[in-house]
Write a structure and sequence with these properties.
Blueprint (H helix, E strand, L loop, with lengths): L27 H17 L6 H10 L9 H12 L2 E4 L6 H9 L2 E4 L17 H8 L6 H20 L2 H13 L2 E4 L2 E4 L2 H4 L2 H9 L4 E4 L2 H5 L11 E5 L2 H7 L5 H7 L25
Parallel strand pairs: 1-2, 3-6, 5-6
Antiparallel strand pairs: 3-4
Helix pairs in contact: 4-6, 6-7, 6-11
């Protein structure tokens, strides 16, 4: 795992890699950066984010007034779907991450990017984690999917198939699109928390937008240093949850026989309503 910067203070880290958020220690400038990011995305995501995300944002009471207190958000989440937020100092070991997720605990970083990093940050910060991820945990189907993913991660580690499961997370939770009667919308947190990719993912001619297929997703590599060359489009959260409900062990055996695909690859069997060049 890549090491991420720790929070802006020196908290004591527990055995499960959780820390205290230390909400009272955020500075006025850090809250101001949150407001800048929030207000910018608030304008961009109208007509681009899926309804479930917007409803979750409203239901949580996440707003532009400053970095939220995880304790308050956890109280709301627990009543809605049984999830809670736990603060961590940065990226955590895979086994710890999956253990938290399998028990409906979402690990979130506490630090927030600087003004110089508004448009790009290599590691997840509190805006990405809380604004991008947490609202969809208010949706019961997506909340169940995330728990199932955590449980699947524990098994994937035992089977040496973690890279396949990581791709599923990347192309759904982080960079997923969903088809709706009103058009394609965003549900992936990596897009929802990014000004540039919120527009690029839906409106640019470059990327491919491919109908979701579980094995196709898990054999496709991804890149972390640029906008995505391909996005996978689900029909509904129910489709996503049902596709990932079965035991993945047979899938991992089949994937071992399949070639790994580069991010911009298009296959003859792909359902591609909109075919881009696969590059910027």
């Amino acid at each position: 795992m890549m090491e991420a910067p720790v929070a802006h203070r020196e908290p004591s880290t527990r055995a499960d890699f959780t820390i205290d958020q230390g909400w009272d220690s955020y500075t006025d400038e850090e809250h101001a950066i949150w407001r800048t990011l929030f207000e910018r995305q608030e304008k961009i995501l109208v007509g681009r984010a899926c309804d479930e995300f917007m409803a979750g944002l409203d239901g949580l009471g996440v707003a532009a007034d400053g970095i939220p207190d995880f304790r308050r958000l956890s109280d709301v989440l627990m009543k809605a779907t049984g999830w809670q937020i736990v603060a961590v100092p940065g990226l955590v070991p895979d086994a710890t991450f999956f253990e938290h997720m399998a028990n409906r605990r979402f690990p979130s970083t506490c630090f927030i990017r600087t003004r110089e990093q508004l448009d790009y940050l290599e590691e997840p910060d509190v805006f990405h984690d809380i604004y991008g991820h947490v609202p969809l945990l208010m949706n019961p189907v997506f909340a169940d999917y995330m728990e199932a993913y955590g449980k699947g991660g524990v098994k994937a580690m035992e089977l040496g198939a973690l890279h396949h499961l990581a791709r599923l997370y990347w192309y759904t939770v982080e960079f997923g699109l969903i088809a709706t009667p009103a058009g394609t919308r965003i549900y992936g947190s990596g897009i929802l928390s990014s000004k540039g990719e919120s527009i690029f993912s839906l409106e640019d001619d470059a990327p491919n937008r491919i109908g979701f297929d579980l094995l196709r997703v898990m054999q496709t590599k991804y890149r972390i240093d640029d906008y995505q060359e391909s996005y996978f489009v689900i029909d509904s959260f129910e489709q996503l949850f049902e596709a990932t409900r079965p035991d993945f062990t047979p899938y991992y055996r089949e994937l071992a026989q399949r070639p790994e695909l580069e991010p911009g690859t298009i296959l003859p069997t792909d359902h591609v309503p909109h075919r881009g060049t696969g590059r910027r």
